[in-house]
């Protein structure tokens, strides 16, 4: 009903036995409909949460419970179209990412139309994350809201805690399925309905509304013998083949190449649940969510290539606004186990910064993003870097990769150091210490980012159009 300006995201989910350290990890690029769409990173306290919620894009409104908990969020700077909180972790160490805009088909929409005044991506984090104590509870809350109010768009919604990851997909105005991601598996979701075979007798791994099977039968939606949610509710269009499936193909090609050796970017039968050839790291996830089909004929940065005529939509591209990688770790105390790794602007050229989420506030260079360009702000500094490097890729990418490796190494060092420093702290003393640690981490990353920006401006200026060298240092 309301075309989303954030409808181009890519999601990666990694079960705890598939990650390098036993964490659950959920990550998603938030991509806007335009290249510049400023974001900020904030903490919402109990008193910041509204008790009555009103959507901006629809007439949806909701009286919220009186018991919200503190949580992080990455909302829009502009508020004219709503909050768009997108990704965060609450004090119960429950992570939520919302949403991965997906697809459905006309037969489903004929049977269960979208609800014009329902809720959508704009609303979901705000009306859900402050009120849940487990990933499973997150699915149940959204399911109840769908039944009562409905939605005006199809979305994939992700929840995780220290043990489980749940991926929930809506279809039509009121229907949905959620699947628990196996502990040893990963998922790449690229704007398509993904869940495949649904097991109605397996409540440990699947959730769905009570009327789902009856709804499908009454409306003659299932064209096969099995109950394949993707085939019943999803789409298989030319747009999918060029815009969506190539992203899943590239990610699976990177993590489990043998499984997709006979597949192509346009294959419409890629698996939803996948198993990697090795333990998956933070760096692996960042690489995939930054990727533009490197080492294939489809890379728009290949010399001579025209990015405007590339046949497939990259994962890392100019409309990336923020990447939140939400990690819940099992091997430290729960009060500092949750980390939100955050990157702003175009992913091929930015870095991830790790922030503890049990904090009082976020660093101002990530929190106080303005509508007007400010190179001392994380969003704008990274937006400038992406603009420069995209036009001078071959000359400058080595500098960017050096910066990315150094800052990611620093991020891992900071986590190890801070974990040790706060292991005996509790309550307000802990939150204060973690807040201060985040400030120091952000200061260092911003310093490195500003140094990179300076270097790139100098190098790009030497080779800009209209340059002229006459052999003299001054003239």
UniProtKB/TrEMBL annotation:
Keyword Hydrolase present in the record's keywords: the answer is yes
* Annotated GO MF terms: cysteine-type exopeptidase activity; dipeptidase activity
Write one Pfam family the protein is assigned to: Peptidase_C69
Recorded catalytic activity of this chain's protein: an L-aminoacyl-L-amino acid + H2O = 2 an L-alpha-amino acid
EC number(s): the record gives: 3.4.-.-
Instruction: Report the record's Gene Ontology biological process terms.
Output: proteolysis
**EC class of the enzyme, as a word:** hydrolase
> Any idea which UniProt keywords this protein has?
Dipeptidase, Hydrolase, Protease
Show the InterPro entries listed in the entry.
C69_dipept_A-like, Peptidase_C69
Q: Which PANTHER family match?
A: LD30995P (PTHR12994:SF17), SECERNIN (PTHR12994)
Provide the family line. Answer: Belongs to the peptidase C69 family.
The name on file for this protein is Dipeptidase
Q: Which organism is it from?
A: Lentilactobacillus kisonensis DSM 19906 = JCM 15041
């Amino acid at each position: 009903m309301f075309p989303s300006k954030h409808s181009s995201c890519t999601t990666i989910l990694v079960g705890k036995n598939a990650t390098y350290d036993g964490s659950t990890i959920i990550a998603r690029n938030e991509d806007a409909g335009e290249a510049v769409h400023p974001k900020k990173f904030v903490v919402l306290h109990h008193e910041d949460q509204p008790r009555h919620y009103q959507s901006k894009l629809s007439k949806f409104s909701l009286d919220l419970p009186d018991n919200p908990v503190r949580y992080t969020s990455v909302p829009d700077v502009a508020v004219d179209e709503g909050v768009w909180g997108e990704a965060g972790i609450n004090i119960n160490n429950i992570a939520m990412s919302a949403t991965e805009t997906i697809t459905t088909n006309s037969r489903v929409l004929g049977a269960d139309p979208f609800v014009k005044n329902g809720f959508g991506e704009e609303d979901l984090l705000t009306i859900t994350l402050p009120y849940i104590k487990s990933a499973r509870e997150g699915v149940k809350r959204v399911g109840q809201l769908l039944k009562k109010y409905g939605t005006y768009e199809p979305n994939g919604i992700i929840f995780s805690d220290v043990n489980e990851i749940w991926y929930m997909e809506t279809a039509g105005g009121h229907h949905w399925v959620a699947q628990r991601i196996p502990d040893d598996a990963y998922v790449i979701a690229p704007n398509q309905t993904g869940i495949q075979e649904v097991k109605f007798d397996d409540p440990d791994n699947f959730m769905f509304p009570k009327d789902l099977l009856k709804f499908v039968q009454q409306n003659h939606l299932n064209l096969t013998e099995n109950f394949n949610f993707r085939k019943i509710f999803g789409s298989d269009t030319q747009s999918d083949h060029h815009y969506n499936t190539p992203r899943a193909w590239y990610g699976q090609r990177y993590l489990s190449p043998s499984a997709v050796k006979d597949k192509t970017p346009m294959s419409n039968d890629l698996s939803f649940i996948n198993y990697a050839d090795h333990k998956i790291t933070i760096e692996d996830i960042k690489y995939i969510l930054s990727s533009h089909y490197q080492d294939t004929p489809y890379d728009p940065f290949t010399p001579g290539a025209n990015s405007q005529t590339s046949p497939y939509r990259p994962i890392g591209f100019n409309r990336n606004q923020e990447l939140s990688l939400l990690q819940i770790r099992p091997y430290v105390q729960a009060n500092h186990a949750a980390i939100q790794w955050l990157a702003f602007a175009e992913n091929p050229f930015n870095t991830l910064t790790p922030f503890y989420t049990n904090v009082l506030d976020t660093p101002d260079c990530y929190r106080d993003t303005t509508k007007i360009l400010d190179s001392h702000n994380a969003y704008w500094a990274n937006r400038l870097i992406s603009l420069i490097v995209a036009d001078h890729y071959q000359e400058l990418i080595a500098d960017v990769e050096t910066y990315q490796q150094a800052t990611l190494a620093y991020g891992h060092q900071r986590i190890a150091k801070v974990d040790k420093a706060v292991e005996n702290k509790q309550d307000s003393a802990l939150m204060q210490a973690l807040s201060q640690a985040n400030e120091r981490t952000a200061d260092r990353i911003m310093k490195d980012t500003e140094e990179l920006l300076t270097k790139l401006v100098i190098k790009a200026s030497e080779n800009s159009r209209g340059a002229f060298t006459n052999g003299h240092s001054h003239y």
